[in-house]
Amino acid sequence: MALISRNRTTTYGELRDQVDHLRGGLTSIGVGRGDRVALLCGNGRHFVITYFATMGIDAVVVPLNPLRLAPELENEIASFGAHVVVIEKLSAGTWANADRSQVPTVATVISSEHGSGPKETQSIDELLNADPAPIAADKFIWPTVAKRLRRHWLGRCHQQKRESSGRSRHGAD
């Protein structure tokens, strides 16, 4: 098993297939080399698939805390100029409260859940039905990316534990 998310198992073959199709879906909506894709997702299947698909088209994936307040997300997204924002049910309410005029670079919002975003939100399931796209970067190696992703998740888990215990990133306040 590659993943277990929401009691759904995903094999490595299924994961690779989903990543290939999402990569095709992302390229079909204009995401390309160097574009920034903000992930407002928890640690689950959609996070993993989108992370790998984005890296596979040589775009830049920027995972953000899905529990941030709307003004904080606006500032973060505006600072790196995201072209696409991927939301899930957990972050849909926050994104709905975001002032879109503060994030003018965002051209597309993709939701992992049907009906969890604004009307103009594109469903990730629609993008998963796209034709597969080839990997853009010749040096894209699954084990290397898996190591980076694991390090990111571990760091994110530690950060969330510190935030929930009332400590800042640099120690106790």
| SSE order, one letter for each helix or strand | EEHEHEHEHEEHH
Quickly count the domains.
2
C-alpha Rg (nearest Å)? 16 Å
CATH class value of the largest domain = Alpha Beta
Strand content: 5-15%
How far from one another are the termini? 41 Å
Unreliable stretches (pLDDT < 50, length at least 5) are none
Overview features:
Rossmann fold; 2 domains; 6 helices; 14% strand
Describe the structure.
With 173 residues, this protein is an alpha/beta fold. The protein has two domains: 3-138, Rossmann fold (3-Layer(aba) Sandwich); 141-173. The protein contains six helices and seven strands. The protein has helices at 12-28, 45-56, 70-80, 89-97, 124-128, 142-164; strands at residues 3-5, 8-10, 36-40, 60-63, 84-87, 108-111, 122-123. A hairpin with a 2-residue loop joins strand 1 and strand 2 (8-10). Helix 1 packs across helix 2 (45-56). The longest helix is centred in the C-terminal third of the chain and has 23 residues, at 142-164. The mean pLDDT is 84.
